[in-house]
Design goal:
The structure is a homodimer. By secondary structure, chain A is α+β, with helices and mostly antiparallel strands. In chain A, 23% of the residues lie in helices and 36% in strands. Chain A folds into two domains: 4-133, Nucleoside Triphosphate Pyrophosphohydrolase (Alpha-Beta Complex), CATH 3.90.79.10; 135-198, Arc Repressor Mutant, subunit A (Orthogonal Bundle), CATH 1.10.10. The longest helix of chain A has 18 residues, at 117-134. Chain B binds a DNA duplex through α4.
DNA sequence: AGAATAGTGTCTCTCAGACATTATTTG
DNA sequence: CAAATAATGTCTGAGAGACACTATTCT
């Protein structure tokens, strides 16, 4: 194929101040876009996606997952636009001040976006919510050690609903994917909370209920 | 990016003679590959995928879903190979004799495959099995009207396990995604079976059980 | 002592899973 | 009437969901 520009974009989620946020780059005037770049000849799609937000995190390990590949026909220029989109999760503590002109936007208050980037973010959010229900992806937004209240709060922010504390604890514990540490965290107020950590040997994906059959 | 060849491949599943099969094209000697072709400038990814098996089916509507996008660095040629893979389902009755040199292979007895096509098929199969459990994708392999035994058999072949007849019927019926027709089918032997049809207004995706609520 | 947050147990109701017999047709 | 396939109902156990009080720390 003659002229195909292949770009890789990343939807980067993080939790700031009780809202789920997405990192966006300015496009022009009041128009924003997802961070992204053209695929280089010497890299895989994944390493290109990694590069796209490397400066945004101090973590070696980052949750990164391929989301979807979009194609757009730009009729006026007769150009074919192909974009491979990833989504990534960054814990608040591993985040740096956004470099350049990048800014964190709440998923509930997005600015005007380039191309179909709004649709892409909506899809990424749906996928994140969906994954939360059958895998252990929620930990990726938290520091290595966390309290159960923090974990529950993360779930609540992403799902956009309140959860029952006792049911949450019961299930997350008997799922066997986190383990106690010897540490506690105190906010200076109230009873200090026990810290937990994700069990690296845990089976993160759990079988979903079978609907059919 | 300078030289990127962007191909679209399709994993086409169908049910023949009690086995789940994949349509493959000969590559060279004893090596086979997934049907595919380079993306044209004037088409979207999806229409390119559709084109890749249009001659394989007489159906207007075909179940087609994007699977994953793979990138391969071919070190010796310094070329970048990007392949967007779709998977498709064709009902046995809508299938034609494979054109050209294409052949249907049982997923349990695949030949030697080009590049990472074995991995791709394995992933497509995993996805198909997974989808079967929370969506109504099984109908896409059957004619418009089908008996419950045929439907159950489809599930059994794909999942590779026997299912309980009563539980299967109970759940598939109370899920409300199929409806009775007035027709019956008889094989000439045994009691004729009632024919059902997929309800086009049905909500095919059902909520999965929440693991971590 | 009061404020703040952490931590804990029970009951009910739904639904998945196991299981065997009767009904209808054809030759 | 024999053979073949279709169709149907019940019981049990696991777990999701609703719900309120006690425990620990700090000031």
């Amino acid at each position: 194929m003659a002229s195909c520009s292949l770009n890789v974009h990343v939807v980067i989620f993080s939790l700031c101040e009780d809202t789920l946020r997405v990192l966006l780059a300015p496009e022009e005037q009041t128009l924003w876009q997802l961070p992204g770049q053209p695929l280089q000849q010497s890299e895989t799609l994944e390493s290109c996606a990694l590069r796209a937000f490397q400066e945004q995190t101090s973590r070696r390990e980052v949750y990164l997952e391929q989301l979807y590949t979009y194609s757009n026909l730009l009729h006026h220029t007769q150009k074919q636009l192909v974009s491979v989109v990833y989504f990534a999760l960054i814990p608040a503590n591993a985040r740096r001040e956004p470099s350049a002109e990048l800014r964190w936007f709440s998923v509930n208050q997005l600015p005007s976006l380039k191309d179909n980037h709004f649709e892409i973010i909506a899809y990424a959010l749906r996928r994140l919510r969906y994954k939360l229900e059958y895998s252990a992806v929620g930990f990726e937004l938290l520091p290595e050690e966390f309290t159960l209240s923090e974990l529950q709060h993360t779930y609540e922010v992403i799902l956009g609903e309140k959860l029952d504390k006792r049911n949450f604890r019961r299930r997350i514990l008997q799922a066997g994917i986190i383990e106690e540490t010897k540490h506690r965290r105190t906010k200076g107020e109230g009873r200090p909370a026990r810290l937990y950590r994700y069990r690296p040997d845990a089976v993160a994906e759990v079988k979903a209920r079978r609907l059919f059959p």
